[in-house]
Design goal:
Elements lengths: L5 H6 L6 H9 L3 E6 L7 H16 L4 E6 L7 H10 L4 E5 H4 L18 H8 L2 H12 L2 E3 L4 E5 L1 E4 L14 E4 L3 H9 L3 E4 L5 H6 L5 E4 L1 H6 L8 E3 L5 E9 H6 L2 H35 L3 E3 L4 H9 L2 H9 L1 H11 L4
Parallel strand pairs: 1-2, 1-3, 7-8, 7-9, 10-12
Antiparallel strand pairs: 3-11, 4-11, 5-11, 6-9, 6-10
Helix pairs in contact: 3-12
The structure holds (2S)-2-hydroxy-2-methyl-3-oxobutanoic acid.
Length: 335
């Protein structure tokens, strides 16, 4: 029997169980969740939602993905456990935070490694990204090919601007929960405290810490300018989000659905990179208008301080010759 149209069902009135029929036609075969730590207005969530919508369309409604932004499902630490157990199917996480599970995933966070975005994408869409995804795969998670842009990280503060490495002395700074972050700011002479992003706004507001570091798009969308006065454009690290899937959940999907999922999230990743690039052009002015005082420190003395503290030598040893060589094949000699 040919399927009845909605109009035909409605016209038939109470004689047919219209509601039941319609509901069954709409129910997705796979109902998955995607979560992130970023505010809903950040382009990452907008582009993830668009991918979810396209995936639903392209799979004829077979796979429905519900988007949970803004730490609605918990902190990064919580969400990573949920992803590993399968309670959460998709999650975007900084490679540095992922390093608690996959140590080599932190490699893009080496201080001042990338001269510019050309080098970032050459490395992350090339040998460095391929290496990291291989390591993620070995630990039972799936990472899609295109990494999403978090951005170059900048230091904000409520007490004073960071102009030289000496300004870090006695400076209490929040860093995400990852060994490389703590090591970087210890080497710079600051006092780092590990705090999940879900607690950052209140930690700044209550002066548990003096400052934090994040890309402009986050300082803006998470409204950190409300609780911070100084913005120092240190560009000390480039950070990105791997789009991760729980392997068992991903393997349950038919091959054609898997292909659509990969294609659409990778497409959205590229669009999100463009969004962030566009925002970077105007956000310094926006943040100035919102009351922040901005300065542009010379990066050379910060790099020198890291070198003298043995930061590069230590992390070259931890990542190993092969991984370090892969990064240096794109960015040149680091130390
Ligand atoms: O926790 C942070 O600072 C954030 C939002 O940038 C990351 O996810 C690494």
């Amino acid at each position: 029997m040919a399927p009845l149209s909605r109009r035909a069902l409605l016209a038939a009135g109470t004689a047919l169980p219209a509601v039941t029929v319609l509901r069954r036609a709409r129910a997705a075969e796979f109902s998955y969740k995607y979560a992130s730590n970023l505010p809903v207005s950040h382009p990452l969530n907008m582009r993830a939602q668009q991918a979810a919508d396209r995936i639903k369309g392209a799979t004829g409604g077979k796979l429905e993905i519900q988007v949970f932004p803004n730490n609605q499902l918990g902190s990064d630490t919580d969400m990573l456990s949920q992803l590993r157990s399968g309670a959460l199917e998709f999650f975007t996480l900084s490679g540095l935070i992922l390093s608690t599970l996959v140590p080599p995933a932190a490699i893009n966070g080496v201080g001042f490694a990338f001269k510019d975005y050309d080098q970032v994408w050459k490395a992350m869409d090339g040998p460095v990204g391929a290496y990291v995804r291989g390591e993620i795969d070995k630990r039972g998670l799936v990472a899609f090919e295109k990494v999403w842009d978090n951005g170059y990280r900048q230091v904000t503060s409520s007490s004073h601007p960071i102009r030289t490495p000496d300004d870090f002395s006695g400076f209490k700074i929040r860093v995400p929960v990852a060994a490389l972050w703590t090591s970087l700011f210890q080497a710079l002479g600051a006092g780092p405290t590990s705090i999940n992003f879900s607690e950052v706004y209140s930690a700044l507001q209550t002066h548990v810490v003096d400052g934090q570091e994040n890309p402009l798009a986050i300082i803006e969308t998470a409204k950190l300018y409300e609780v911070q006065k100084y913005l120092s454009m240190t560009n000390h690290m480039w950070d990105g989000y791997w789009f991760l899937a729980n392997r068992r959940a991903f393997d349950r999907l038919p091959a054609d659905v898997q292909a659509v999922v990969q294609q659409e999230f990778n497409r959205s990743a590229l669009e999100e990179r463009q969004d962030v690039a566009g925002m970077n052009g105007s956000l310094a002015d926006t943040l100035k208008g919102q009351g922040m005082a901005i300065n542009q420190p010379d990066p050379a003395p910060f790099r020198e301080k890291l070198r003298k503290a043995g930061f590069y030598a230590e992390w070259k040893g931890k990542f190993g010759e092969q991984a370090w060589g892969t990064l240096e094949s794109v960015v040149g000699t680091l130390a």
